[in-house]
Design goal:
Strand content: 25-35%
Number of strands: 9
Radius of gyration: 16 Å
Shape: globular
Number of helices: 5
Largest sheet: 5 strands, antiparallel
Structural class: alpha+beta
Distance between the termini: 30 Å
Length: 163
């Protein structure tokens, strides 16, 4: 991913990975949020998404945990809401999953997956979905939507990538 300086509206170091590498937060003028880290001489993309909270959650998952700077974590639409409780995270993801909002961003490697029976929601890759949700499970019990919000929510059984 190439992001030129003129595309960036906000940029700052917001935490550290478990190995102590700095985590850089970038917001573009177009509304893309990204988290990156630099270890040795390589810059690694931890996550990008059209919502700050989604990108932060994906970055934490990929990095295996991030120690967020207190100021960033307390930002009004930063991570404080996600850290309050699992219920808060669930409600936020469910609202995004079923929102009418749509973007024209490229497909993300992550999908929101909502298990209607268990009332659980998570962010999974295509491979994780294929491995965890077998063909013998009732695929109509799962609602799925790409994390980039570039498509409407679908039943897993009706989604073109998984049917």
């Amino acid at each position: 991913m190439i992001i030129d300086k003129h595309m960036i509206s906000e940029q700052k170091v917001v935490g550290k990975t478990k190995s102590g590498d700095p985590v850089l937060y970038v917001m573009t003028h177009g509304g893309l949020f990204g988290f990156f880290t630099k270890n040795k001489d390589e810059v690694e993309t931890l996550a990008t998404a059209p919502h700050k909270a989604i990108a932060a959650w994906m970055a934490e998952k990929k990095a295996g945990g991030i120690s967020w700077d207190e100021k960033f974590a307390k930002h009004e639409d930063g991570l404080a809401d996600l850290k309050k409780s699992q219920e808060s995270r669930f409600n936020r993801y469910r609202n995004l999953l079923f929102s009418q909002e749509s973007t024209d961003l490229a497909k993300s490697e992550y999908y929101f997956v909502y298990d209607l029976n268990k009332k659980e929601i998570g962010l999974l890759t295509k491979d994780e979905i294929s491995n965890r949700i077998t063909k013998d499970v009732n695929r109509k019990n799962f609602v799925i939507r790409n994390a980039s919000l570039n498509e409407r929510p679908n039943l897993l059984s009706d989604h073109g990538d998984f049917s």
